[in-house]
Every structure is written in C-alpha cells, then in structure tokens.
Amino acid sequence: MGRIVVEVMPKPEILDPQGKAIGTGLERLGLSGFSGVRQGKLFHLSIEGEVTADALAKAREAATSLLSNPVIEDVVSVREADDAEVSR
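The structure corresponding to this sequence follows.
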C-alpha cells in the first residue's frame, strides 16, 4: 500500500485568522521568536499498490478540484509519503 501526502496553504495575500490566533497563543505561552504563523491542511491519501506517476497525477487532480479552494488556497505539494509519514 502506498501513501501520498498533499499540502495545502492559504494564498499569501489571504488573511489567515487561525494562523494569527496560533501566533498570539504562542506568545502568551512564552514561545516567542516566531515572526508569523500560517495554518494549512495536510492530507494523507492511501492507495492500493505503489505510488506511481499516474497515482500522483490523480492526487494532484483531487487536490486542485476537491481538497483545496483555488480562490483562497494553493496546493503546495503532492508527493509520496516518506517512511516516517507512512508509519503514522
């Protein structure tokens, strides 16, 4: 079984209220030094068999047509999961 990871982030020009709230929370906890926080989405897609170029292409299509909102989000990456990600 293979696994594909899709990362989606808000476009840079879009306000990110969740990221802002997380940044404020970090400061309140005394965890300073972060100049900004952006919150995105991470999807793990399991497939039968190995990850192929065709499977990655289908995952890219899913990412742009369903997993992200192209008006406000960018698909940052679509890739095969590494060993650490597969064991989760």
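DSSP finds three helices and three strands in the chain.
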